[in-house]
Design goal:
Protein name: Cytochrome P450 4A11
Largest sheet: 4 strands, mixed
Helix content: 40-55%
Main location: endoplasmic reticulum
Radius of gyration: 26 Å
Number of strands: 11
Family: Belongs to the cytochrome P450 family.
Strand order of the largest sheet: 1-2-7-4
Bound molecules: protoporphyrin IX containing FE
Strand content: 5-15%
CATH class of the largest domain: Mainly Alpha
CATH architecture of the largest domain: Orthogonal Bundle
Shape: globular
Subcellular location: Endoplasmic reticulum membrane
InterPro entries: Cyt_P450, Cyt_P450_CS, Cyt_P450_E_grp-I, Cyt_P450_sf, Cytochrome_P450_Monoox
CATH superfamily of the largest domain: Cytochrome P450
Structural class: alpha+beta
Length: 510
């Protein structure tokens, strides 16, 4: 009996044959990929053989070594044991070198390696290609364009604006402390620093601290900090398309939308306002150009205005970098002073001698609070608001002790670990402002809250002014005490946060 060409059994046989071929091909590709990953891992192990590593799993890296949220404690344990640097394996083929030796860090900051693509690219959907993420010639042009926005003459009048924002926050806190319960200060400080950057850099009229929309912006920035931190550490979340499909990816997308709504609104309002105000020269004669004016009036080399995308990226970058870092620093400084009442009182006496008669704080006062400045620096050492920065080596590097790393290595300049490194800072966990006494000496790269080299923080003077104003006015109004039942747990997200908030008791001074 003849069998037709299209008979079901022939068809099934054909399909199963095809399936077998597809399976074999799949298996072959899988083996090829596994061999590729194996060789890649071997190459990495060979390249880093001069640097002993904490024990790690071949597939899960160091993730099994510590509980989630315990990464900082785990890192510090190994900083004590391994000199200068060690590899942190995120998973089988992903490793970053953690550096915490001032000589090592000095060498890296003296070069011009780009920001590491592995972590900074996850910030791009949020803050775009602004100053923080740019590299090369475009970075240089933007840095040159924006530097005048932080000139001494521009910063001077900010003291009054900052003091107003701090006063609004302190009034709010005063209303909250009716009962003897502690206050979680991070959220209040964040709204205050957002208010400050909005007033100083974006000449915003009105109070952000009393506006509900600002709270959703602050919430979105907090979420994005956590989401970026987790994404860097998750092998399955590296691919953009896959990440977008995950709950975390959708959450990040929504948070970015909220953040962008806030910045879009700022740009839209200013463009409308400038149309009313008229030409640049007229505006310049009437008032100082603020950060946003500079961006809007800038002409690129071919004479055209800054493209909208670049403008948005810079606004998003400065809005985030200009408020979240200062919120972190002020909150941790107040916590450090609450834990160290003698130093707190010494700062208060210094400030009372300047402002005790109710005089408003001015630019000239800022240089007359040496002890408070020492305490601020010591708190920035213990709680660096930016816990780490990353670079991708564009050429090999050999450190002073002779050990080297090849081109392409991701290095993390671990500022938190540098600041807690017992070889650099004896008794690193002790709050001791005398480390910053004018007579004390230290390595040029032992204290780097604002990083260093050409990519240092463009806003560091702005930040230091804000920290002094906020600390001075807070200590004049309140005595600060820690809440022993809720000790904050530092969490090294993009900005140093506390896993459980920062709770303080505030006692109004008479
Ligand atoms: C206490 C507060 C602050 C701290 C601790 C801090 C820290 C830092 C650090 C460590 C970097 C280097 C980042 C890297 O290499 O990836 C940086 C860069 C930067 N910071 Fe700050 N910052 C603070 C406040 C500010 C403020 C107030 C602004 C703006 C008003 C600002 C704007 C920037 C920008 C735009 C960059 C990128 C600079 C560049 O790459 O050229 N920061 N900051």
């Amino acid at each position: 009996m003849s069998v037709s060409v299209l008979s079901p059994s022939r068809l099934l046989g054909g399909i199963s044959g095809l399936l077998q071929v597809a399976c074999l091909l799949g298996l072959f590709l899988l083996l090829l990929k596994a061999a590729q990953l194996y060789l890649h891992r071997r190459g990495l192990l060979r390249a880093l053989k001069q640097f002993p590593s904490p024990p790690s799993h071949w597939l899960f890296g160091h993730n099994q070594e510590f509980q989630k949220d315990q990464e900082l404690q785990w890192t510090m344990k190994w900083v004590q044991k391994l000199p200068s640097a060690f590899p942190h394996w995120l998973w089988g083929t992903k490793v970053r070198m953690l550096l915490y030796d001032p000589d090592y860090i000095k060498m890296v900051l003296g070069r011009s390696d780009p920001k590491s693509n592995g972590s900074y690219r996850f910030l791009a959907p949020w803050i775009g290609q602004g100053l923080l993420l740019l590299d090369g010639q475009t970075w240089f042009q933007h840095r040159r364009m924006l530097t005048p926005a932080f000139h001494y003459d521009i910063l001077k009048p900010y003291v009054g604006l900052m003091a107003n924002s701090v006063r609004v926050m302190l009034d709010k806190l005063e209303e909250l402390i009716g009962q003897d319960s502690p206050v979680e200060i991070f959220q209040h400080v964040s709204l205050m620093t957002l208010d400050t950057i909005m007033k100083c850099a974006f000449s915003h009229q009105g109070s952000i601290q009393l506006d509900r929309n600002s709270q959703s912006y602050i919430q979105a920035i907090g979420d994005l900090n956590n989401l970026v931190f987790c994404r860097i550490r998750n092998a399955f979340h590296q691919n953009d398309t896959i990440y977008r499909l995950t709950p975390a990816g959708r959450w990040a997308h929504r948070a970015c939308q909220i953040a962008h709504q806030h910045t879009d609104q700022v740009i839209k309002l200013r463009k409308a306002h400038l149309r009313e105000e008229g030409e640049l020269e007229k505006v310049r004669r009437r008032r100082h150009l603020d950060f946003l004016d500079i961006l809007l009036f800038t002409k690129t080399e071919n004479g055209s205005s800054l493209p909208d995308e670049d403008l948005r990226a810079e606004v998003d970058t400065f809005m985030f970098a200009g408020h979240d870092t200062t919120a972190s620093s002020i909150s941790w400084i107040l916590y450090a002073l609450a834990k160290n009442p003698k130093h707190q009182q010494k700062c208060r006496e210094e400030i009372q001698s300047l402002l005790g008669d109710g005089a408003p704080i001015t630019w000239d006062h800022l240089d007359q609070m040496p002890y408070t400045t020492m305490c601020i620096k010591e708190a920035l050492r213990l709680y660096p608001p930016v816990p780490s920065v990353g670079r991708e080596l564009s050429k090999p590097i050999t450190f002073p002790d002779g050990r080297s790393l090849p081109k392409g290595t991701i290095v993390v300049l671990y500022i938190y670990a540098l600041h807690h490194n017992p070889k650099v800072w004896p008794n690193p966990e002790v709050f001791d402002p005398s480390r910053f006494a004018p007579s004390s000496a230290r390595h040029s790269h032992a204290f780097l809250p604002f990083s260093g080299g050409s990519r240092n923080c463009i806003g560091k003077q702005f930040a230091m002014i804000e920290l002094k104003v906020a600390v001075a006015l807070t200590l004049l109004r309140f005595k600060l005490l820690p809440d022993p039942t809720r000790v904050p747990t530092p969490l090294p997200t993009v900005v140093l946060k506390s896993k459980n908030g920062i709770h303080l008791h505030l006692r109004k001074l008479l």
